[in-house]
Write a structure and sequence with these properties.
Blueprint: H1 3-40, E1 46-51, E2 54-70, E3 73-77, E4 85-88, E5 95-96, E6 101-105, H2 108-141, H3 149-181, E7 184-186, E8 191-196, E9 210-216, E10 220-227, H4 228-231, E11 239-243, E12 249-257, E13 267-274, E14 285-301, E15 306-308, E16 311-317, E17 323-334, E18 337-342, E19 350-351, E20 364-367
Parallel strand pairs: 1-20
Antiparallel strand pairs: 1-19, 2-10, 2-14, 3-9, 4-6, 5-8, 6-7, 8-9, 10-13, 11-12, 11-14, 12-13, 14-18, 15-16, 16-17, 17-18
Helix pairs in contact: 2-3
Length: 374
Amino acid sequence: MKPRSLRAILGPASALMSALALMLVGCGGKADAQAPGKAAAQKPALTVTTTTPQIANWPRTLTATGNIAAWQEASVGSEIGGLRLAEVLVNVGDRVSRGQLLARLQSETVQAEIAQTRANLAEAQAAGAEAHANAERARQLQTTGAISAQQISQYFTAEQTAHARAQALRARLQADELRLSQTQIKAPDDGVISARIAAVGAVVQPGGQELFRLIRQQRLEWRAEVAAPDLGRLKPGMKAQVTAPSGAKVPGTVRMVAPTVDPQTRNGLVYVDLKASADAKAGMFARGEFELGSAGAMTLPQSAVLTREGFAYVFRVTPDNKVQQVKVSLGRRLGERIEITSGIEPETRVVAIGAGFLSDGDTVRVVEQTVPTP
């Protein structure tokens, strides 16, 4: 082939390649020009509703734990020993009244002793009457000289001895009758039986053996352990509420704040009288709250607060519909709302629901609807 014919073929081909290159450069420039526009037009990450903190008057409380115990327990026992229990009339949990018969000891031995003492007393009274008559005759004959002074003195001494013996036997009879009354074990006060040691047939030991234990007047108290710095905030007469293990709420009133603090735990005891309730039992461990009055609180719904790595956050909505993560401090909780003590202002708009799906700096679509205040 001739050189001229080769140039004729290659010329149009190179021109076509140059045109294609120019078209590609132009398309690339247009794509680059459209990229910033697409980046700028970011779509919202989530549609959210907003709320603002609400100011409410909330009660101030102090939380504590402690044991429920009997206000006072009376130990009921026998004042005499050596007798067998003939009858036991009450059991644990029974409510009793003051003077009610709880148990009875065998009394035949004591009754026999009383009968013997009465017989001895009758004999002493007869001897005393005879000695008194002899002494009266001696007084009448004392001035006549019919009997000697020594014999008169013997008559007077015999009269005094007989009188003293009769008095001693009367005292013995009273003691025996008292022992007979002590064979009946009676309740010293109104209350409920919390323990029973008495068993029919057992011989009561001398020295006042305990037979029953009685919660006086069925009164229970909550012995709350409170840290020393908080003891000054509590006064007698303040209201409290104890949560029993069953979940029931038992109202109470502060009776006394202990004057001392445990040097080991640095806690002091606060004694709270509890209202009678079937849910509170002596020996239970319970949590409770003391009512310290009320104070204003800036609150948010709990759904607006997010906890991450041990800290609390809310998402503040900026004017350009972006969210900003803000750390806040929490206070009291009441129902579905929580107190915010610091971190935001009362007029701050925050995300009400769905904070867990957001990240700092996300763009959101705001629905103008506020969460109603309870």
